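Q: Could you fold this chain for me?
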Amino acid sequence: MKTINYVLSGLGGQGILFMTKVFATTALNKGFNILGAETHGMAQRGGSVVSHLRIGDARSSLVRAGAADYLISMDESEAYRYLPYLKKGGKLFANAGSKSFPDERVTDYLKQNKIESFAMEASKKAMDLGSPKSTNLAMVAFYAAFGVGPLTADDLRSTVDAMSPAKVKGINLKIFDACYEVGKKISSAN
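A: Sure. Below is the predicted structure, expressed as structure tokens.
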């Protein structure tokens, strides 16, 4: 299969590595080859964290600038920082206010590179649903609603179900389902 490249970005403590694990586990469960790499800047102090995940027959673990199919960012400023990783025609999913995203300073870049951008206030949604630490799962579900890439929403939800400890399984699936619905509304409007 053609290699599909993901870049996941955010700040230390936002659950980037867990989010990567959900994607990687789902890909492995489907029988895909994967390679991945993480960069932890000042992660423990809220610094930049980026994870590269390559699904398919990749030869190296790092995604080159201009080669990512998908950028999923837990933080709006980190979405802008890692924007150069997206290829022409790539898709950006960000934890940001949908009315103010993307910032007007990057709209020309997005248009020139045919990059589609989608935003949901995942932090607010997770908090409203009673689990602010589940913002990362909210973003996985939001991405899943667009039906892009080799991993389906059902595949990702099954992985979340299997990976979630019993005491948080119910809330994790509730967040997944609610944020999937938000994404479906946005994707069907486009």
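A (continued): The mean pLDDT is 93.
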